[in-house]
Structure formats: C-alpha cells, structure tokens
C-alpha cells in the first residue's frame, strides 16, 4: 500500500521516518515495487545522467545505461524520456530507446520528447513495439520535432494497438498530411485529448462524436480554426472542458455571433460543467485581440473553482482524508494528491496499512544495496541507529540530522566525516568526544542554521555564522558576539547564575523567540529589554523571583505577541495593563487560576 | 549597539505600518460598490500592493478607486475581505529562516478567523475565497481552505459532494475501483 501512496502522490519529496527503524525495511517495499519515489528520483537523475552521456556524445554508453536501468526497474509505471535540446536522434537510436521502454510491461504513463533529424522519421515501428508490450499504457504524451522535415504519414498508425489509451497529448512541430492523424479516430477510449499541431484540417473533426464518445477534455492549439470545427466539436457527447488556443479565425465575425451559442445550446443539454474558452484572434498580423471567456457554474458549488484553487484548498487535508476524498469527483482526483510533498511514516500508520493488505507489503530483508538507490531522496534523519555509517554518504540531500553521539557521523576506521552541509543538527555532546572531530564537523557544515546540543562546544559553535536557532540544555559561554544573528533561543540552566552570565543575550537584537528556564531570575536581565529585543514576539520565562519590575520591563517590549509564563505564582498579571501592548495571545495565566 | 538597533529598523517598522494604515484608499467591487480600506491592510493583497507600488501612493489616495474586476469580488465579498485585512494587517511577517510553512499549515485557525469565515451562505463563502485568490491575499485563502478542509474531515465522498455541491462525474465502476484501491483507509483498528 505504501506503493499505492507513492504512485498517487507524485510530487512527494520528503519522507519522514521519525521513530521508524530500520528505515530501509520500511522503504524497501517502495523501492522494490519500483514506484514513483523511484520514478521521481529517476525523472531527475535519469534525465541528467542521460543528458551527461549525450553531452559527451557516447550514445553507446547511454543505451547501456538505459538498458541497465530498465532491467532493474521492470515494474516502472511512469516514465519520461526527453532528448537534450541540442541533441537529435537518428532512426536507430529512437528504435533502440523505444525497444528498451517496451520491456516495461507495467507502464501506465509515458512521455516521449524526441527530436528526430532523419529522413526516415517514421516512429511507426517503435510505437508499435511499445503498444504491443506495454498493454497497461493509459497516458501518452508525444512531442515530436522533426526539424522541418515532413513527418511520415504512417507514424501514428500503431496508436490503434494501444487498447487502454485514455489520455493523449500530441505535439507536432511540422505540418503534416491528412492521413497522419487518421489513426487517432480509432482511439475510441480517449477521455482527454490535447493537440498542439500547426496545421489541422477541418474534416478531421467530422463525426468526432462517433470516434470519441468518452472525450471529456479537449484542448486544441492550432494556427487556423474555423467555425465549422466548433459545430463538429459541439456534438461530442461527454465533453466537459474545451480549451482553444488559436492565432487566426478563418471567419472572425461568424465566430463572435452564433458559433458559441450553438456550442452551448447543444452541450447544455448534456450537462456541460464549465467551458473555459480563451480565444486570441489576430487579423492578418493586426494587433486586434479579442478575448472571450465564458463559464457556467452554480455560485455555491465547489465546481466553480479551477484546478489550481481546488488543489490549494484540498492541500490542507490529511493524507487519510485525501484518500477518502479521491472519488468525490474527477477534479478532486486530479488535485488531491498534487500538494503532497511530505509524508510522515509512523509505526501506527504502517500497522494500519499492513493490517489491511499484509500481502501488498513484501518486506524485503535489509538490503544495503538498495540504500544507495533511495539515499539521495532523504533530507531528514531522526534518531535512527545507523548500522552502516557509510550509508550517510549516499544521502546527498540530507539537511537535518539527529543522532546520539558525534562519533556516529565519523567513519570508525578512516575517521572521515560522513555528514556535510547540514542545516539542522541535534546531538548529545559527551565529554569524551573528540575535540578534533567537532572542529572538523563544524568546518564542513558551515551552513547549519539550527543546533540542539550541550555547552562545551559553544566556542566551536560560534563559528557557525548562519545560526538562527540554538537550544542549549546546560549553559552558555559568554561574550559570543557572533551569535548576534540568533532569532530563536531556548536556554535551560540548572545552576545558579551570576549577573554576568546572561549579559550576552542583550546583544542578540534579532531575537524573535526567547525561552528562558532559570532557577532564579537575574535582576538586571530585563532592564531596557525593549531596546535590546525590539523584534521579540514570543517570550517564555520560568524562573523564581519574577518581580513587578520584571513585568514592567516586559510590558515595554514593542513587538511582543505571546507571553508564556507557567511558573508565575503571584497575581500580578491580573492587574497588569498589557492591553497597550497589543498582546494577541497570553498563555500560562490560566494554569494557576 | 545603537548602530545595530538602527540597522534592524527596516521596512517592516511597525510604526510606519500603523501610520500608513491611517491613510485610506478606495476599492471598487465588480458590482460597483466602493469601500474604504487602510493602506497597510489593503496591501495584504498582492494585487493591490503591486498596483499601489506602480501608481504611487499619492495617486491611489487622491484619484479613482482601485477596480477589482473579477466577478467573485461582489459587494458582500469585498466587505468581508476588508473586514479581514483590517483585523490582520499587523500580523508579524513570515520568517523564512525556519520551516514554519509546515507548522503554519497545520496550525488551527484562531477563534476570530473561525467566526469570520463560518458564513452560512456558501455562495458568499466561495466568493470570498475566489476573490481573495484573485486579489492574492494568501492568508485569507488559507483561512478559507482550512475552513473547508475542516468541514471535509472525516466525511464520506457522498457527504462531501452534498455539502460542497460537487457533481460526481465518475461512473459507478470507476468509483468502486478507487474504493478498492484505497480500502486501507476504511480499515478498522
């Protein structure tokens, strides 16, 4: 089922495995089933790898690469292949690429962007191979640039062998003869059709209602459109959305007056939901533009919203609710998983998944060979026991790491540092830890913005000039001017303090959030705090010895929005005029009432 | 230290914002109604902000109202929107140094926002959201989205459809297939 999730949530970037271990066991089903996490990885990496190979102009290597890749990912469901912009294929390489792709029998979604600069540019054979082997194929995007050579009329012939094809997106850069598009008429199952074709013939749409009885979505981009087209298109029985981009109308006046009336009157009866039509009419190069928009919907129906806004709204649903709502409508189905970029896997979640379909998750034994595959996807690791520290070197994108001991990020034998360029780091500092290790770690992680640790290393930490958040659980070394960039500070001190210790805090002028947990409040700390911390929005103090003066000072903080003080024992707050301060939230008071 | 204090008083100085909000500009709905709104508050709309910046503040204050042509910006919706920005104009700016995006998304709406957005007239609610989206007021779109999502939570597909008046364009077979795929959601603990 994890695989299902991964298939639906195609935009996923982060998997959060907090508290799950070992992660390899959790993630291996996803990897082994070969679903989109891998696809996502491949979509980026595969393309760049191939691009690089092309750049070196070693087509043989590239094919080897493709072959090896296909062999290891036979269950891929979605593939996108693009030629580099300056690179063009010859007939042989196209045949070979398609031959390799045809081994992916589970393929459902294929995107092919090809540039063919070859007289013999028929893709007919290649497409037939794919059609015969990839029987599950439902969505095909084909972009064909033939460098001004006419495209062979047979090219699309084999589309009739794509029995499950539902969505077709076709972009042709060259004019073509009448027979090229004829095979499309045999794709009776099409629900979505996008045509971006320079020149199209009116007669292509004659009887289109018979060819495409299920067509819901039609998008046409063409140089010239005639009103006759619309009268044909209007007969499509299932059409819900029509998008037209055109530069020229053959007969502009006719379009304005009655054509759309026809379109609507015919389609209204067939419950057309919304017609989004944007017409840009240019009359023989004159800048005479005419934009028309028409939408039909009920004001109190969510159907009135376009996909963008709908996606934005449903992006606040939990993952479970997203699955529950998938079948509300097709718009929901399209949009509900779009915004999922971050999944949190917990034991409970996995248990729930595995309870329903235990068999679906074939737990693969921990296989270190898989880790290099999904390592590059990981951006966050949280308190996981790393059996093999070297695995960290595969996690190029890792930015947040939480471990127990600093020595875990060093190779035991070579003493090499394994985690570099982190942004957030949490660990427990031990007195036995090697100072050199800490120094090396700091040197290689200058971009760290957040640290949670113990105090002995403050001297080292002061080298992290990007630091924006610091959580110390013991003490702070004074005189750290380089900490003046700090925005958030949480300070827990269990020892008696003197006046001097907290003085450096006054230099942190950029503080927006401050949490202090002290035994005894320092008298002078809050003097003039309005000047020291002009941006402080959040203040939480738990300490003995909070006096009326302290509150007096606090009330002068100009930007304060939240004050939390669970330890306050006296009724001072009752009478205190915080109103002037525009506090939006005041916490802690309630606890003691 | 004085230097430091000067340095951090930048564009987001609260006093300046407060003063600017005393300046009133006029906004015109697609139905023709004209309403006054504080400048800082109105600039919560990126659309208005860009207009004000390109026209210059003086021009906006003294001349014609800013026309909001989108049909979702009805009189009623614009009144609601002005009410919202006038309440929220002094919210602290977003701090991109932290991953607050996720926290903010998960944060529950404030009591005021809940009462504000809980309108009985669903057409008005959708107008407000669509208008806020058109005017590019991200905070308000978020309030609307969270409100709708809180109503969706835990409901069945059919209940969601009825509530939001969504047309079911799936065939029975298609719906069954999706149900089967997502069976784990309905599994009892």
TrEMBL record, chain A:
Instruction: Enumerate the spans annotated as F-box domain.
Output: 305-336
InterPro entries named in the record = F-box-like_dom_sf, F-box_dom, LRR_dom_sf
Reading the lineage from the top rank, the first entry is Eukaryota
Q: Which SUPFAM superfamilies match?
A: F-box domain (SSF81383), RNI-like (SSF52047)
Q: Fetch the Pfam families from UniProt.
A: F-box (PF00646)
- State the name under which the record lists this protein: F-box domain-containing protein
Q: Which organism is it from?
A: Medioppia subpectinata
**Lineage, please?**
Eukaryota, Metazoa, Ecdysozoa, Arthropoda, Chelicerata
From TrEMBL, chain B:
The region annotated as signal peptide is none
UniProt pathway annotation: Protein modification; protein ubiquitination
> Could you tell me the keywords of this UniProt record?
Ubl conjugation pathway
Name the Gene Ontology biological process terms.
protein ubiquitination; ubiquitin-dependent protein catabolic process
User: SKP1 component POZ domain spans which residues?
Assistant: 24-88
> Pfam families given for it?
Skp1, Skp1_POZ
Question: Cross-referenced InterPro entries, in alphabetical order?
Answer: SKP1, SKP1-like, SKP1-like_dim_sf, SKP1/BTB/POZ_sf, Skp1_comp_dimer, Skp1_comp_POZ
Domain of life according to the entry: Eukaryota
Occurrences of domain SKP1 component dimerisation (ranges): 138-185
The protein's matches in SUPFAM superfamilies, at most eight in alphabetical order, are given as: POZ domain, Skp1 dimerisation domain-like
Q: Would you identify the family this protein belongs to, as annotated?
A: Belongs to the SKP1 family.
Can you say what this protein is called?
SKP1-like protein
Which organism is this entry from? Medioppia subpectinata
């Amino acid at each position: 089922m994890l695989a299902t999730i991964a298939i639906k949530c195609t935009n996923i970037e982060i998997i959060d495995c907090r508290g799950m271990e070992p992660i390899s066991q959790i993630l291996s089903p996803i990897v082994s089933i070969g679903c989109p996490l891998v696809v996502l990885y491949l979509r980026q990496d595969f393309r760049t790898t191939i691009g690089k190979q092309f750049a070196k102009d070693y087509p043989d290597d590239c094919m080897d690469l493709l072959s090896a890749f296909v062999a290891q990912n036979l269950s891929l469901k979605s593939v996108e292949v693009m030629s580099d912009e300056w690179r063009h294929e010859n007939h042989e390489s196209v045949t070979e690429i398609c031959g390799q792709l045809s081994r992916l029998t589970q393929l459902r979604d294929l995107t092919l962007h090809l540039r063919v600069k070859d007289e013999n540019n028929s893709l007919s054979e290649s497409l037939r191979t794919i059609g015969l082997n990839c029987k599950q194929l439902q969505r095909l995007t084909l972009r064909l640039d033939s460098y001004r050579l006419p495209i062979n009329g047979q090219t699309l012939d084999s589309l009739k062998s794509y029995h499950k094809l539902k969505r077709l997106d076709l972009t042709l850069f060259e004019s073509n003869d009448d027979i090229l598009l004829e095979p499309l008429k045999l794709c009776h199952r099409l629900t979505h059709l996008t045509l971006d074709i320079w020149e199209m013939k009116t007669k292509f749409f004659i009887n289109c209602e018979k060819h495409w009885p299920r067509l819901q979505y039609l998008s046409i981009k063409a140089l010239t459109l005639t009103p006759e087209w619309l009268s044909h298109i209007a007969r499509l029985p299932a059409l819900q959305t029509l998008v037209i981009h055109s530069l020229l109308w053959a007969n502009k006046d006719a379009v304005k007056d009655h054509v759309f009336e026809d379109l609507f009157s015919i389609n209204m009866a067939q419950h057309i939901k919304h017609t989004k039509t944007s017409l840009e009419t240019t009359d023989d190069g004159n800048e005479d533009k005419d934009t028309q928009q028409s939408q039909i919907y009920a004001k109190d129906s969510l159907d009135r919203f376009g996909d963008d806004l709908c996606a934005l709204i449903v992006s606040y649903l939990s993952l479970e609710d997203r699955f529950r709502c998938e079948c509300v409508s097709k718009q929901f189905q399209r949009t509900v998983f779009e915004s999922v970029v971050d999944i949190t896997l917990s034991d409970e979640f996995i248990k729930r998944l595995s309870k329903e379909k235990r068999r679906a998750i074939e737990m693969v034994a921990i296989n270190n060979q898989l880790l290099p595959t999904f390592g590059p996807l990981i951006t966050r690791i949280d308190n996981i026991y790393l059996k093999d520290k070297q695995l960290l070197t595969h996690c190029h994108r890792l930015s947040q790491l939480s471990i127990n001991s600093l020595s875990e990020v060093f190779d035991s034998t070579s003493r090499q540092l394994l985690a570099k360029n982190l942004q957030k780091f949490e660990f427990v500092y031990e007195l036995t830890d090697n100072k050199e290790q800490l120094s090396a770690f700091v040197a290689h992680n200058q971009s760290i913005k957040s640290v949670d640790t113990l105090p002995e290393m403050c001297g080292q930490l002061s080298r992290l000039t990007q630091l924006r958040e610091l959580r110390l659980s013991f003490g702070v070394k004074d005189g750290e001017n380089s900490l003046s960039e700090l925005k958030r500070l949480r300070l827990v001190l269990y020892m008696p303090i003197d006046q001097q210790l907290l003085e450096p805090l006054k230099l942190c002028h950029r503080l927006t959030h401050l949490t202090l947990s002290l035994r005894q409040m320092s008298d002078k700390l809050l003097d003039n705090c309005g000047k020291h911390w002009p941006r402080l929005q959040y203040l939480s103090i738990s300490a003995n010895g909070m006096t009326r003066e302290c509150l007096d000072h606090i009330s002068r903080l100009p930007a304060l929005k939240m004050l939390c003080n669970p330890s306050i024992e006296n009724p001072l707050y009752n009478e205190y005029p915080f109103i002037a301060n525009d506090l939006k939230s005041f916490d802690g008071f309630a606890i003691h009432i | 230290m004085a230097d430091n204090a000067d340095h951090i008083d930048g564009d987001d100085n609260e006093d300046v914002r407060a003063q600017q909000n005393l300046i009133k500009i006029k906004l015109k709905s697609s139905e023709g109604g004209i309403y006054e709104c504080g400048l800082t508050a109105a600039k919560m709309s990126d659309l208005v902000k860009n207009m004000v910046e390109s026209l210059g503040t003086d021009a906006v204050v003294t001349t014609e109202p800013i026309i909001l042509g989108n049909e979702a910006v009805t009189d009623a919706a614009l009144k609601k929107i002005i009410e919202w920005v006038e309440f929220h104009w002094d919210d602290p700016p977003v701090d991109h140094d932290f991953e607050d995006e996720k926290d903010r998304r998960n944060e529950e709406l404030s009591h005021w926002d809940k009462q504000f957005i809980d309108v009985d007239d669903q057409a008005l609610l959708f107008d407000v959201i669509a208008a806020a989206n058109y005017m590019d007021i991200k905070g308000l779109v978020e309030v609307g989205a969270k409100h709708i999502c809180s109503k969706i939570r835990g409901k069945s597909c059919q209940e969601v459809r009825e509530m939001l008046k969504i047309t079911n364009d799936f065939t029975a077979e298609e719906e069954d297939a999706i149900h089967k795929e997502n069976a784990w959601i309905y599994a009892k603990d």
